[in-house]
Amino acid sequence: MARPRNDIIANVGRLNRYLDRNDLAAIAVRSEINFTYLAGMAMPGTLMRHLDIANTVRGFMLVWPRNGEPVVILDSMAEKIVQRDSWINRIEVYRAYVESLYSRVAEVLDEYGLGKERVGFEMDTLSATHWQQIGNALPNL
Length: 141
Prior knowledge:
Number of strands: 5
CATH class: Alpha Beta
CATH architecture: 3-Layer(aba) Sandwich
Oligomer: single chain
Helix content: 25-40%
Largest sheet: 5 strands, mixed
């Protein structure tokens, strides 16, 4: 029997007020605490460490647009876990060790029409290289 997916625990109204107050079209998070809160699930075992290691090749990110459906961007190792445990329906998979999580995040932002919009990122989970990857894909960001 399939396990029921988690309910939304995030205070979406408060998040939308934060986005509005800071003139943000979206936020992109990957720290353990923020990812877990917004996705409504925790990664098990060794997958959890990939959330807080900024330079991991197999990282995850959750993009929450002010208007539109949230999306989890991850490598294929965690896809089935997120499908099973998170309430978020849109999942985008990138090929770890072949392509960059951050280039895929930039593509998703562009797909949402947010390539030229103001997007909030958690600064302590991004290195200068990651910013360069995002910037190369979305030079107007």
